[in-house]
Amino acid sequence: MLGYWLPATSLISARARAHYGVEATLGTGVALTFDDGPHPKGTPAVLEALGDNVATFFLVGEQVERRPELVSRIVAAGHEIGVHCHRHRSLLRLGRRAVHDDLERAAALIADAAGREPTLYRPPYGILNATALEEAGARGWRTLLWSRWGKDWRRRATADSIVRCIGPLRAGDVVLLHDADYYSAANSWQRTVAAVPRLVESLHDSGLEARLP
After folding, report:
1. Euclidean distance between CA atoms 169 and 173, whole angstroms
2. Fewer CB within a 10 Å sphere, N or C end of the chain?
3. How far are the Cα atoms of 9, 25, 71, 92, 168 from residue 13, in angstroms, in the given order?
4. Residue 9 pLDDT
5. Residue 19 catalytic?
6. Using CA atoms, how far apart are residues 124 and 122, in angstroms rounded to an integer?
7. What is the pLDDT along the chain (213 residues), one digit of tens a residue?
8. Residue 36 — left, alpha, or beta (φ > 0 → left; ψ -120 to 50 → alpha)?
9. R_g of the chain, CA atoms, integer Å
């Protein structure tokens, strides 16, 4: 993963965040979100680093299939789960049938592992197409992108760079991070884990709290 393409509606305007149903549900909170897991080392480490703070994990079906017990662990700890994909591919490369099949398989695996149906959706790379939006709407999923990101997938990322990149957080922000390195630089999750306590401390110092979207 070398970078992300951001739709205009995922940038930091209040109008954009409202479009994706963020501000109305977060209030004075901030949503910490993690993509691409579950990962045998990264996910447990992130869970530990979060402590009592809640987060949302957007899961990849092919990884859930390998380690469903980690999904149960996420849910048992009080966190939210969402659908990311089954295979981590740009939707711009997929036809209507392929998008449907990918989301169908991911949803079934995640629901089975979590013991409940997911209600949130975030596409790989933040790239949406008409078919994905139709599928999400038909399933009652809310599409959630982000307003802040740590660029933690990069090879040169550090805990310091992640915190700097995210910058000062505001009420209603959605923060994008990753608890896995399947689709990014090797061991990138280690830097993310190191940054999480600092982000949580920054939240509390600003009078904010982590909330579920």
Report:
1. 7
2. N
3. 8, 16, 32, 25, 15
4. 37
5. no
6. 7
7. 333 333 433 333 443 443 444 554 677 799 999 999 999 999 999 999 999 999 999 999 999 999 999 999 999 999 999 999 999 998 888 889 999 999 999 999 999 999 999 999 999 998 888 899 899 999 999 999 998 999 999 999 999 999 999 999 999 899 999 999 999 999 999 999 999 999 999 999 999 999 999
8. left
9. 16
Selecting among 84, 173, 178, 179, the annotated active-site residue is: 178
Which domains are delineated in the chain? 8-205 (3.20.20.370)
Q: Which of 35, 152, 173, 181 is catalytic?
A: 35
Q: Which residues lie closer than 8 Å to 167 by C-beta, 6 or more apart?
A: 148
How far the first Cα of the chain sits from its last, in Å, is 26
Angle between helices 68-76 and 42-50 (to 10 degrees): 0
Beta carbons of 208 and 30 less than 8 angstroms apart? yes
Interatomic CA distance for residues 199 and 129, integer angstroms: 32
Token pair for residue 98?
A: 């392929």
